[in-house]
Amino acid sequence: MSVSGHPSAGGQPPASLRRRSSSRRILPSLALLGAGVLVLAACGSGRTDDGAAAADGGSLVVGTTDRVTSIDPAGSYDNGSFMVMNQVYPFLLNYAPGSDELEPDAAERCEFTSDVVYRCTLRDGVTFENGNPLDAETVKYSFDRVVAIDDPNGPASLLANLASVAAPDATTVEFTLKAPNDQTFPQVLASPAGPIVDKEVFPADAVLDDNAVVDGAPFAGPYTIGSHEKNQLISFSGRDGYDGILGEPQSNSVSLRYYASSDNLKLDIQNKAIDVAWRALTPTDVESLEQVDGIEVHHGPGGELRYMVFNLNTMPGDTPEQKLAVRKAIASLVDRNALSEGVYKGTYSPAYSNIPSGVDGSVPAFEEVYGGAPNPEAAAQFLQEAGVATPVPLNLQYSPDHYGPSSSEEYAAVEAQLEATGLFAVDLQSTEWTTYSDERTSDVYPAYQLGWYPDFPDADNYLTPFFMPDNFLGNHFENPEITELIDRQRSETDPATRDEIIAEIQQKMASGHISTLPLLEGQQVAIATSEVSGVETTLDASFKFRFTPISKG
Questions:
Q1: Which residues are listed as membrane-spanning (predicted)?
Q2: Residue 453 and residue 456: Cα distance in Å, rounded?
């Protein structure tokens, strides 16, 4: 996720939850969670960023500019951190490479035993690298601490429907939900809220420092971390004892190298000094690399969303009505097509909804309300009718390093679009991600950039984390009607009815709230040398980049 990353009706669970085709994005049938699952009828060598030589030994070397906030699952909710977690932590349910269908992983099976109780039975013999057992109390501890810590940069919002966790015996975990028939909860178990951590290593009430995490060796995924220099280099080694669904590591040693500059990342993959480049190169870089012999550009399903967030307390406007008028004016002025073509060379498409167009239930609500092209007259009218003096002073913040180097060009273009009308005076500022991720939840930024990779392939993941009370944005949006609609869609078992509710949420957010303004949507892109295989396998609609299927030679 990028944050990328990380939210009641009654009735009984259906006899089955119908799975749509793989291009449709709704919860997989629980029958697909393994043969034992029941659904109750009643309910190389490379170099570092500074040019230092990498270690020999045929390691797979992956380069990225996508920085880590924390490798403690309670302390981060972003794509860079989650990519690391996916290699080293176990999940009760997970997605095999090449699939967006949930399967048991650390669990042997999972099932609804009533409309509000979801039970998982653990596999025997799963242990952490340090030798500690993975038992039901460990699972309970893992979820309880995410909720208790409730870190501003953490994934606690994904567990908003979780009432309690119980461990009635060593191999049984029972999740009691607040609202019944939650169509998304199994997928939450594979999300950033789902990594299982060692209760002997992680404190119950605080996020653990990354170096202490590595020293404790609390890893039970396909890889363990051998050495760690935060946002510089992480060395992974395959674990002999791993037998989960991510598969046996095809590269026993992987070096993940962090680049401060996409220019250096592009140079190293072009010169084959690294094996794989994953997030984030500029569109011009990708276009250029497609012409280089021995380099292959791999594309995966979309789902990424780039958007602007409004802090409803600190944004311009003296009243809620004036603040809404400012947001409507901005929605009327942003030229998404210019951003798509002028900045991103068509590698991103205009986004007219809070839910990307390829996801079940998406409707182009912003285009329906504000049109597909800038409308300065409408913008001026919104401001005039609310009594907002112009030009409106707008402090707009973005991160130059976290969402790719084109962020500077993207937000310079947004600034120019708003100021060209004379309706806004924009103060555009940038902050490095390590500071940005803290300040954005502290009422420092009136309006700011974020990007999003979904935690699981379902429309709810673009709704619950953003628009429920106490959402991860920390932008003070809360609306009882929207909350009720989100709860309803999550519990609705009929796909067509659920899509109708999801469409209504999008339309109401576009016309009457606009707590976030969608700008662009994109697909996954990874660059690799021709000696590397398996990259295309991991670029699937689960949006999890796994090392296990990737090999060189």
A1: none
A2: 9
